[in-house]
Amino acid sequence: MIDLLKAIAETKKLHPSTKIIIISDANDVFIQTFLDNAVSFLNVDKIISNYATYCGDGLTLRPYQVQNECSICPPNLCKGSALTDYMKTHGPFSTVYYIGDGANDICPCLKLTEKDTAFVRKGFGMEKVIARGKLKGNDLSLKAKIVYWDDANVIKDETCVFDKKVADKSSI
Ligand SMILES: [Zn+2]
pTM of this prediction? Predict the structure, then answer.
């Protein structure tokens, strides 16, 4: 995974319009702390997550939102609307690569188009929901290319080929 993140960071340097966003049901303090300590080279553009503030010895959590418009997401975070809101504000984007594992990663994948890719982690909730073809009674209609992964090199090969093409052209 570290190799993948390094490759993504390099890709972003070559193509500065690339955006890296994290949409997580954890919390912003946890994610920022992880990024600062484990992958400080990764220039993340946006963290969309529940809010945490230090309070005494612990953290006080607040939901990212309180929503009831999306029936397949929990009330505290609809990852699909978070993704589309970000894309409306910062896009358009030629391609979206979405990496997920949980059932709550299905909603944003329903927003993806034929130009996009959803990376589905093998053995986790997202893969099981896709195999069922239904979530909370709703039929799934995924337009994006689906790539199953249990090795981050699979994602690296699909997303960071841009670098190789640029390198190949420049070496001719
Ligand atoms: Zn949703």
Answer: 0.89
